[in-house]
Amino acid sequence: MTEKQSSWKNHLILIPFSLLMIYPVIWWIGASFKSQAELSLPTLWPETYMWENYTNGWSYSSQYTFAKFFANTLIMEFWSVLGGVLTAALVGYGFGRLNFRFRNFWFSVLLMTLMLPSQVTVVPQYIMYNKLGLTDSYIPLILPHFFGGGAFFVFLVVQFIRGIPRELDEAAQIDGASVYAIFFRIIAPLIKPALFTVGIFTFLWSWDDFFAQLLYLSSVEKFTVGLGLRMFIDQFEVQWGQLLAMSLLSVAPSAIIFFLAQKHFVEGIATTGLKG
Amino acid sequence: MFGKKSGSGKKFQHNTAGYLFISPWLIGFLLLTLWPILQSLYLSFTEYSLLDSPVWIGTENYSNILSDKLFVKSLIVTFTFVLFAVPIKMMFSLLVAMLLNKNVKGMSIYRTLIYFPSLIGGSIAVAALWRNMFGLEGYINHILGWFGIQGVGWIANPDTALGTLILLNTWQFGSTMVIFLAGLKQIPKDLYESASVDGAGVFRKFYSITLPMLSPVIFFNLVLGIINAFQMFTSAFVITGGGPANSTYMYVLFLYEKAFKQYQMGYASSLAWILLLIIGVFTLINFTVSKYWVHYESEGGKSN
Amino acid sequence: MKKTRPWLKTLAVGALASVLVLSGCNAGNSGSGSSDKAANLKIMWWGSDVRHEATQKALDMYTAANPKVTFAPEFTAWDGYWQKLPTLAASKTLPDIMQMDAAYIQGYVKRGLLADLSDIDLSGIVDEQVIDNIKIDGKVYGVPLSYNGQGMVYDKVALEEAGITLPTNNWTWEDFFAYAEEARTKLPKDKYPIDDLRNIWEWYQFYQTSKGLGPIFKDGTTFNLDKDTWFEFNSKYAEFQKAGIVPPADLQLTSKENDPQTDTFGTGRVMLRGASVGSATAIEALLPGGRIAVNSYPIGEAGGGWAQSTIFFSVSAASKNQAQAKEFIKWFISNAEAGKTLGTVRGIPINNDILKSIESSFTAGEQLGIDLLGVAKEKALPFYPAPAGAEDFVSTYKSEMESVMFNKTTLEQAYETLVEKGKAAEAKLK
């Protein structure tokens, strides 16, 4: 089998599969141009394209356009991702490589924090942040990424680090490198793909975390895209066309980030020629 | 959790460094996370409407829960979901990850397209999307119509609604897949090359190289897959609301409705701690069994 | 959207000016004293952006007239609102003024979270009858902002085309069922005369109350599901389901009210259904172009349907600015200029003078709301929300009846389960 043949076959599988996966999204694109009346039709594309869904949707809120909401969300995201990646790398190394007293205990506690449904901690948490005077700010949304949160990511990084042969750090240790030096010089570069994964997921999941944003942000000038989207929903009536248009746009940054970053997390390590 | 330390590990005990590295998490846990967790434990022994102060009632919530028919119903629904959703999603993700791991022109675009459904997450748009796909006049029934099959209202029928949610869950397989992908890339290429030289076929290579080398990541996805499946909430909340006839009444949806619709936060907290126990048991089993199949390079490369 | 004709504008400005002069005098008399104190009022409501925008304008107007009172507004969509409000209650930070809904207000009153607003003088602003209807234990805990009520809407064009006898106002349940049977014979196979709402507990309750048998929870405490009436009603629907008079269960349960994709009425699958005044604009948007006509609910000897305010402004019992809050609320529903700004963003204004001043610029949807209110008012029964504490019964009702609709359980079994849940709720309520 030559290279060319196999790549041709790959496309034969990949193209229909991609289309199958993306079909509902194609419907979404079509629907985002529809008028309220046309949405009831099962057609994919509208008769008349309502570009207004995008233009009106963008400036739907009287005070701010979606540009403001996007900017707010991106600022929040920047800190969240930074915190998520830093914490996951450091803590993951601690748990994954270093041997210290009560390590297993603390790791069990870390996992336990993942098992308790957040629906019952959200109210005490709100009361706590409220007492600290931190409501209506991004701090309750960002702080957990630096401190205490991110158990999922810590565990992920731990698993990746444990897949790295120990001979590497042992060799460095014999050369006199400290555990800190080993982390920065050996481990950190090797877990780059995992850290990119952490970064992307932090980005996506904070973008999506509507409930926390709803609780902690109250003034419109601080609204995130997720909260902005809710403005299209009334008790009896939903502005579907505009909602679908704006929520499609709201996915765009994530898609772009994913597209740009996926190269890194899938190609970071392949070239190092590491041998187990 | 990490099993017995192998000889090499014991030589190096790094108490200071260890605590220094985990300090961001530890400090945050003690200052920000612990208090709400303890509160919820306390509240599980109270009657608490959110609107007025909690009243201590001992273990009454717990005993009430055990005789609550809805508790049993939601447990059955949730276990069914976990039983099907987790393996299907895992296998599908691994398969796709291997497909996307190839060196094909335009792969970035394929990856992004295939990942796209997972970007949508639990947004409101998903509900509209899913209703359109699986409605009576939706896309699925349209296709079935070509083959002369009369479709049903997939999410409105108690026999098919849960299956449809499992399908939706599989469709949004992206994060599991990406983790597999990153794991696959970590496997040194020369392992495959030397296996090829030895004349190993595709399946042989998958079985003796990919699976063991990927096992830490498979393990991760399994543990987290189970935890997340038990806590499945958003799509049941947004798309079916637990219906029809409670056929998609997930445990956490039950818990949520108790907390924020019926204002019984005490009861909801008890439900949460029961769920924690259930998930804890599963996770413990997972970790115990993992010793027999998860292969860590760092632990001296002992396999199986 | 709403274009006012120039001559109308002049007229309005004239009327406005005169009202302003009058209300100015009023404010001078009653407003002094408490309003001297500066206050920043936290105010919270749910709704769409149209509502947000208009309300903020009104708040600015109030601050312009009363510089010492400023506002910290906060608003969300409907569903988020009822998650956030209890969280605020739990952290003892309820806003000074909050929008309330009839289905929720009891729970807040029961826990002593809302201030008694009975001393706001609403005479000449809101009809006494309206106020009496919304009192809880004889006190006012929420000042009504708009009229609401429940009537029916039908696709007039489709019924006429099919040659079906049109519904008439104040028809009986027998008439209603007869219409359904007749329409079945004349409609195409995939269109249905009425919905199958067996899983909606209120729908059955309408039947029971119209026959003078009282609501399912009498006086908000006693469990009162009339066995014979209940079986009669649900057997009728079971027959209808067999005969194809109502949609099959999976089509029915796909339907989400007012959702353009799935609403059985909005997609032209079902010809007639109940509709609240508050949702009129949404319904009109589904079937635009004057296709829709209104009709009253089916009635019995006691009446039928309901007409009552369901949106209120309430004041937190813990608020330190209650006097200012009360004054603001009174202004909010009585000031002509504010009324103009607010229009119908919270439904048909409760103040008849304001209603008159904006009537002429109503859109088709708003007019539909007025028409619905007209037919609802005549024989209206009180509005019977589920008492706080009966939530378990309500959700069980839904799931049990859905099982019945899919023939997964029998009517007898469902009844037993409901009685069990009803009795449990009763024990809690007493």
Automatic annotation (TrEMBL), chain A:
It comes from Paenibacillus phyllosphaerae. It comes from the Bacteria. One of its GO terms (cellular component) is plasma membrane. The chain crosses the membrane at residues 12-30, 69-93, 105-127, 139-161, 182-207, 240-261. It holds the Pfam family BPD_transp_1. CDD domains: TM_PBP2 (cd06261). This is Multiple sugar transport system permease protein. PROSITE patterns: ABC_TM1 (PS50928). The lineage of its organism: Bacteria, Bacillati, Bacillota, Bacilli, Bacillales. Residues 70-261 form the ABC transmembrane type-1 domain. It is a multi-pass membrane protein.
Automatic annotation (TrEMBL), chain C:
InterPro entries: Bact_solute-bd_prot1, SBP, SBP_1_CS. One of its GO terms (biological process) is transmembrane transport. Keywords: Signal, Sugar transport, Transport. Transmembrane segments: none annotated. The keyword Methyltransferase does not apply. Pfam families: SBP_bac_8. Residues 1-27 form the signal peptide. The keyword Transport applies. It comes from the Bacteria. Belongs to the bacterial solute-binding protein 1 family. This is Multiple sugar transport system substrate-binding protein.
